[in-house]
Amino acid sequence: MENSDIDWQNELERRARIYDDIAAGDRFEGAMTSLDYVAIAALTLVLVAAFWIWGA
Amino acid sequence: MTDHVAQGGLAAVETENVEASRYTAAAERGDAPLLPSERLWGFWEFTYANSALAIATWAFLIGGAIGLFVGPKEGIAAIVIGNIIGVVLTALSTTPMSGRYGVEQFVALRSQFGYNGSRVVYVLAVVLLTMGWLAVLAMMFGRSIDGMMALSAGEAANPTGTKMIVAAVGAILLVCVVVAKGPTSIKFFNMVVSPALVLLMVVMLYIILSHHSLSELLALPALSPPFEDDTLNFIVAVEVNLAAGFSWWPYIGNLARLTKNERTAFWPNIVGIFGAAALGEIVGLLAAVALGESDPTIWMTRIAGPLIGIVALLFVAFANMTSMANILYTSIVGLRQVGTASVRSISWGMILFLFCLIPLGLVVFYPQMYDGFFIFLVWTSALNSALAGIGIVDYFFLRGQKLDMRSLHGPQENGHYRFWAGFNPIGLLALAVGCAVYVIVFNPQTLASLPAFKYLTASVPSCLAAGAVHYVLTRLFARGRGWGLYP
Lengths: 56, 487
Fold this sequence. Notes:
The complex is a heterodimer.
Chain A: H1 2-24, H2 34-55
Chain B: H1 2-28, H2 43-54, H3 57-69, H4 72-101, H5 105-108, H6 110-113, H7 115-153, H8 162-180, H9 183-211, H10 214-218, H11 230-246, H12 249-256, H13 262-266, H14 268-291, H15 296-303, H16 305-338, H17 341-345, H18 348-355, H19 357-365, H20 373-398, H21 405-409, H22 425-441, H23 453-456, H24 459-478
Helix pairs in contact in B: 2-9, 2-14, 2-16, 3-4, 3-14, 4-11, 4-12, 4-14, 4-20, 7-8, 7-16, 7-19, 7-20, 8-16, 8-18, 8-19, 9-14, 9-16, 11-20, 12-16, 14-15, 15-16, 20-22, 20-24, 22-24
């Protein structure tokens, strides 16, 4: 039981280290950028304004 | 000797593989962050999964409820406005962190509320909400089956009768079996059911439009508007849709962690959840207003004769099961994370069954809940909108999109996210403020509202208030006390 706990802690540590490495190299693939956030804000504003004017 | 060494080497490799697959399974269940290489879903697979989640009869039912407040034109506007705001805020508060770190949503929540605080949030947001929705969806499944059998036999349906209850109980138990087999079986379910449902909606829309012109439909009045003030009726309709959008909060984070990266975790929600839910609600709204009946299990029997009615009800019944499987899976993944050691020691299959006991009880002893689903939905927004506000502020503005995997998954008692005895008083206070703001601005039980409701809705002020309180108090008090590893 104790061994399996140690194994599990080692596995968690391995996974944390992989994310540390990715973060250190800023290598998050497919990360959201400012462009994504601007696009979603613009899409939301356009839909809200257009349907408010059309339907309200 | 060589054979012996080779066999020993193979055995070692096999043991390593068994260990690796055991760890991956544990990570899939949320015990550890999923690595990018272990994640199942790309853009379209997550879009299918989200569409399957959104195109349940709940979309038809919500659309029908909108038809009670406003006519189709205002209703379509309310559906788009409410859902886009609700889905975007909910997706921003949950999916970027799940997509970046593959972390289970309620484990990530330890960084906002503490490890005990996340348990409180789980019980409030997931246990109550999921159990309620499981019961409502199962009853809709039961009503669909009852309606289908009545149509086949040429008899009148009995929506609260024994057949409905037996079918609803059967649906919950079958969903338990599907979810017990893990996310791969849910993925298969989604890939089959989702495209068929999109097709069904298009067919229904075609049938409705072949009986009424679009201009005729848009000119129809509301079924039962509660207020004389049209603007107030419209804002209530927007609020119901905001509630529908925010009601994805407990689920999409844990589905998004199965995607390959942040963009894949975020954008499919706009296509899948917003697009599919809006389409389903619009179909439900138009059908309800055109046929004068807000319950989809009734209007489907009237829409195009018995044969198409039977096919439609059968499809929709199984679509409900897809949604039930998705929300049950994500909820149990969360429950294992927030539960105590004794909860975690219960087997996956048994915990699924135990979780379903209350929905089973609701189906058998409280079938009237189906008719009051609308009030239940709006109440959930008091909580979910505040949670979304706190989530966005905490992850983006206070933490700069950085979470510490060791602190989230390691021993909690002395970890960085322990806050005060496992509770973050600031996060919990912000949550309480957000909920209070909601109920003061708009009471879901009585529909009484402040004048500001007509201009601001209730979910948006609740989201803003909770986020603002969390931001200001965290900046003022958390760092000095060493709480929460804020930079």
